[in-house]
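Chapter summary example.
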Amino acid sequence: MTSITTKPDSSQPRVGMAVDLFDNWFDPIETEVRACARRFIEELIHGELDAVLARPRYERSKKPGDEGKVGVTGHRHGSRARSLTGTFGPIEIAVPRARLNIANGKTAEWKSQALRAYQRRTLAADALIAVCYLAGTNTRRVRRALGALFGGAVGKDIVSRTWRKVKGDWDAWNTRLLAGEPIVRLILDGTVVRVRLDRKATSISLLVVLGVREDGQKVLLAIKQMGGESTEAWRTVLDDLIGRGLRRPEFIIVDGAPGLDRAIAAVWSGVPVQRCTVHKHRNLFAHAPERLHDEITADYNDMIYAETREEIEVRRKAFIRKWRLKHRAVADSLEEAGDRLFTFTRLPPSQWRSARTTNAIERLHEEFKRRIKTQTVLPSADTAAMLFWALLASGQINMRKVDGWLTLATKLIDQPMSAQRENVPF
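The structure predicted for these 426 residues follows.
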């Protein structure tokens, strides 16, 4: 029996061996596909020119009596070589040339609509480059990852230019009308990213607004880069949404930032607001030594995750009573949140899980930061906001419906949870 091996003969010189791994992996299928792609593109462009001139190659111009034919008079004059990179790889094509007769007896060079002037890549190739970038790969790594497919024709400058093409869609998304969006709930939060400003790494805030439609589907409504989370910054975001037709929401979930609370009160006074229970939990830790954190967590979770509205109120009072005596700063911090920490109890219990926190945005923040981890510092503030949007718009990140969406049409309980405090001596 003959043994077949792929191990190279060590007695042969190594001069002719491939320098890099995969360089000697010849694939006849790929080679034939690229050849077919070249022929198809050339025939496509020739057919486009034939339609303009109303005659195929080597056929004479219109004769007397053929005036009924539709076409532009002109003549072909050879072809020129063009390089084109697509998902099929880099190829060289021969693009036909022609001069068309125009007014005043002059002529103009014919321009193909299928292959635009100076186009070097197909839109599908640009989309592939952009998707790789969105997947969390920096510009240099995109070049390496796609080098085999594109034959080394993709440099980091091409990746940057391709990414800038997304800006047209980004600008259109930022100005779209929202009057037709059936939004019933808003989730608002901010995150901090590092960008390059004046050649220095600077931290900026991205203010994010998620909407929940009547069918429970979450949708990104706005993302703005600001210097912070002040009242003025949030008013800018909210005024823009209202100006584009966003209707008054029925329920709002916030992180508890004072600037955001004031901005909401100025534009939507009276709308029920839920303060994120996770943010408040972290805030309680800031008011107590680390040795008390586990005990605070146990008491806090016992209160927040109680099964009924009445149980939550009882455990709330017990929490305040206990921590007033044990560590008053913790009790004062909980009381500072007021009834806004328990607004979710006015909803049906099936919605409590999705209405208690801003976790929907927090998860987006985590995924966004994971994707940009390879870049450390983003090139500009505008790029940061656009990248966040593109991760969702391209389908790299998908958002599901909120828990309890089937009961979203149920009206809130009118009476908020009692804010009465017990006068417990200490």
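To summarize the output: Residues 10-18, 419-426 have pLDDT under 50 and may be disordered.
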